[in-house]
């Protein structure tokens, strides 16, 4: 697992969301979210920005470049 995978899962769980609920909120599939969390795939730039906006954090935080 990479830092993005870990942080994405942590943020999702902090909000009390399932992978399916997050996928529905962002208009992705549950499989896509699962692959990101498992580290099998990485979101493209547009998806990364959407995740940062949804979780009210920076893309740098999601990518593990900062700890805040």
Q: What would you say this structure looks like, in words?
A:
This protein is mainly alpha-helical. It has five helices and no strands. α2 (19-26) crosses α3 (30-38). It is globular and about 25 Å long. 15% of the residues are buried.
Global mean pLDDT: 97
Radius of gyration: 11 Å
Distance between the ends: 20 Å
In this structure, how is the largest beta sheet organized?
A: none
Helix content: 55-70%
Write the layout of secondary structure elements.
Layout: H1 3-14, H2 19-26, H3 30-38, H4 45-55, H5 59-63
Helix pairs in contact: 2-3
What is this entry, summarized?
The chain is mainly alpha-helical and about 70 residues long.
Key words describing this protein structure:
68 residues; mainly alpha; globular
């Amino acid at each position: 697992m990479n830092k993005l995978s870990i942080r994405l899962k942590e943020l999702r769980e902090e909000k009390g969301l399932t992978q399916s609920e997050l996928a529905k909120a962002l208009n992705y599939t549950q499989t896509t979210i699962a692959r990101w969390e498992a580290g099998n795939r990485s979101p493209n730039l547009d998806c990364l920005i959407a995740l940062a906006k949804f979780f009210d954090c920076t893309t740098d935080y999601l990518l593990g470049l900062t700890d805040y």
